[in-house]
Design goal:
By secondary structure, the chain is of the alpha+beta class. 16% of the residues lie in helices and 22% in strands. It has helices spanning 9-18, 112-115, 231-244, 251-265, 332-343; strands at 2-3, 21-22, 39-40, 48-49, 70-71, 107-110, 135-136, 139-140, 150-151, 154-155, 164-168, 174-186, 205-211, 218-219, 223-224, 270-276, 286-297, 317-321. Strands 2, 12, 13, 14, 15, 16, 17 and 18 form an eight-stranded mixed sheet that branches. Strands 1-4 form a two-stranded antiparallel ribbon. Strands 3-5 form a two-stranded antiparallel ribbon. It holds the Pfam family NUDT9_N.
């Protein structure tokens, strides 16, 4: 029996019990961005033997060939999002913490919204003593990449320097764990036949995308994993909130749509990524990690009929054709690229 190393407890158990397929590997993609390019070496490995009886429900894990490692590019963007704060420039050869750099002077920044101490944010270091690299009460401070460093009581970004310390817009010190549900369907013509891309001659997938209010970029409708929450619930909760809240439907109609969504999310999902996210909100001490799972409506009888139209500005949610030319938030393009490869679809 096979299991993925370094899974967070509740995430691992949920995915196993639900029978998710996994394709776990480090991914890398070159972004059109103003920061220099560097790569973060992910600690995610292939697999190891499991003896736990709870894993008897787990099917074999399909592991794709190793890809270039995770990009650490947007995490070094010159200006921190939502602020006038500019990062200390970090060249590629000074990225790793192991590289001595006496002149490194990162800018300290934590957003005012985080300093107001909302329920989803940690207090400042010094006012509490978090247990890093472990399950700290209901807050999971373990990284999908393995053990990360801690210096002077503060966690260190496992992908290296970012030019900014503190938490920025992120609530947790260390890894901020998220879940990204990739809901797809086949693009079909008026006769119900799959539409093929003229260039690749492969069928075109569509996914439900939201337009982020903070930066205006299109993205997968994901969200943060609440303390003590298993990832399957996060996936369905975030998708339901983003999709249903955008629809002009009666409560009864929304109830029927929710039943379809629940049915889809009970189907086997395809995990396309687990690890570090190259996110512009990342800092030296706080960073985003995610589990991205594809839920595909193969026959078109569940969520495919959600009344969303491409370009519909109502709620900023719509079906979008998956194509390499589409510009998306953070590492979301890579997640979709993996999805198309697994579904033998156009990219």
């Amino acid at each position: 029996m096979v299991q993925v190393r370094n899974w967070a407890g509740p995430i691992r158990i949920t995915l196993i019990l639900l029978g998710f397929r996994h394709s776990v590997y480090s991914v890398g993609t070159r972004h059109h961005f103003s920061c220099p390019l560097a790569w973060c070496i992910s600690a995610t490995k292939a697999s190891e033997t499991a003896g736990d009886s709870a894993h008897s429900h787990c099917t074999s894990i399909s592991s794709l060939s190793t890809m270039p490692s995770v990009a650490h590019v947007k995490a070094r963007c010159p200006q921190y999002p939502g602020s006038e704060t500019r990062r200390f420039p970090v060249p590629d050869d000074k990225l790793k913490w192991e590289t001595k750099w006496a002149d490194y002077k990162p800018v300290n920044y934590t957003a005012p919204s985080v300093l107001k101490k909302p329920s989803w944010a940690d207090p400042d270091i010094g006012s509490f003593s978090p247990h890093f690299n472990s399950l700290d009460g209901s807050v999971d401070r373990r990284s999908h990449l393995g053990t990360y460093g801690v210096d002077q009581g503060k966690p260190l970004n496992p992908c290296g320097r970012t030019g900014l310390n503190g938490r920025g817009l992120l609530g947790r010190w260390g890894p901020n764990l998220a879940a990204d549900p990739i809901v797809t369907r086949w693009k079909r013509d008026s006769a119900g036949q799959r539409v093929l891309n003229a260039r690749s001659e492969l069928p075109v997938l569509q996914f439900i995308s939201i337009k982020r209010k903070d930066c205006g970029e299109w993205a997968i409708p994901g969200g943060m994993v609440d303390p003590g929450e298993v990832v399957s619930l996060t996936l369905q909760r975030e998708f339901s909130e983003e999709a249903l809240n955008s629809l002009k439907a009666s409560p009864k109609e929304k109830e029927k749509l929710q039943e379809r969504i629940t049915r889809l999310f009970k189907s086997p999902g395809l995990q396309v990524y687990k690890g570090y996210v190259d996110d512009p909100r990342n800092t030296d001490n706080s960073w985003m990690e995610t589990v991205a799972v594809n839920f595909h409506d193969e026959t078109g009888d569940s969520v495919s009929e959600l009344p969303l139209q491409a370009g519909d500005d109502a709620g900023h949610v719509c079906w979008i054709d998956i194509d390499s030319a589409v510009s998306l938030y953070a590492s979301h393009s890579q997640f979709l690229k993996t999805t198309t490869k697994e579904r033998h679809a156009h990219w």
